[in-house]
Amino acid sequence: MAMSIPAWQNKDMSRIGDFWHKMLGDLDYKTAEAAVIKILRTKNSWPFPADILIEAKNINPPKDAPPLVDDAWIEVYKSLNSYRTEPLEYSHLVILKTVRSCGYLNLCQRENARLDFMTTYKRLSEEYLNQKENQIVKQLTNYKPLSLLTENLAAKFDANRKQINAKNPPPEIHRNVQNESKVAQTNFVSFGGNAPF
């Protein structure tokens, strides 16, 4: 992409390239290249990773993506039967969740069933796609739960402390109990009290 901007052609782009590779790591090279070419040919701005991901999904939709809302409604509409109480099996989990959320019999009997279905379907599709995107981001970043991270940091801290203590042990503190009790007795008597010891 740097080749499309003359001022960037002689600059070291390795750090930026590594970061972009991490962000776009779930795309295959050909799809990413096609997305970048299409963006550079149709827009007047430099593409961001989000632009590339959106265009890549338009070029090569994910296999497990929910169908378009109109296609989903047609599938549901064909299966509606007010004598049936349970929905049929559908081509995608999001369609089934939408039918259950709206209520199968409500979709059979209501006049604005299409609007209810489409509104709910869009919301559930976005939630589904966000969950998938979060899973991809976790994989790309080698995601670890915070508790595991803090445990690892605590273990490293303990190991470092042990190494430091092994090289420079803390000074030993020797106490002379008899001397301390005599000092305490002297201090107590000097304040006008009778020493109980």
Short description:
This protein is 64% helix and 0% strand. It is mainly α and 197 residues long.
Computed CA radius of gyration, to the nearest angstrom = 34 Å
Broad structural category: mainly alpha
* Major sheet details: none
Poorly predicted runs of 5 or more residues: none
Number of DSSP strand runs: 0
Which outline best applies?
A: flat
Strand composition percent: under 5%
| Count, helices | 9
Terminal-residue CA separation? 87 Å
- The helix content is 55-70%
Mean pLDDT: 77
Helices, strands, pairings?
Elements lengths: L13 H10 L5 H14 L6 H11 L9 H11 L13 H10 L1 H6 L3 H28 L5 H22 L9 H14 L7
Could you walk me through the main structural features you see in this protein, from its secondary elements to its overall organization?
With 197 residues, the chain is an all-alpha fold. Among the domains are: 2-59, no CATH class; 69-140, no CATH class. The protein has nine helices and no strands. Helix 2 packs across helix 3, helix 4 packs across helix 7 and helix 5 (93-102) crosses helix 7. The termini are far apart. The model has no long low-confidence stretch (mean pLDDT 77).
Question: Any descriptors?
Answer:
197 residues, mainly alpha
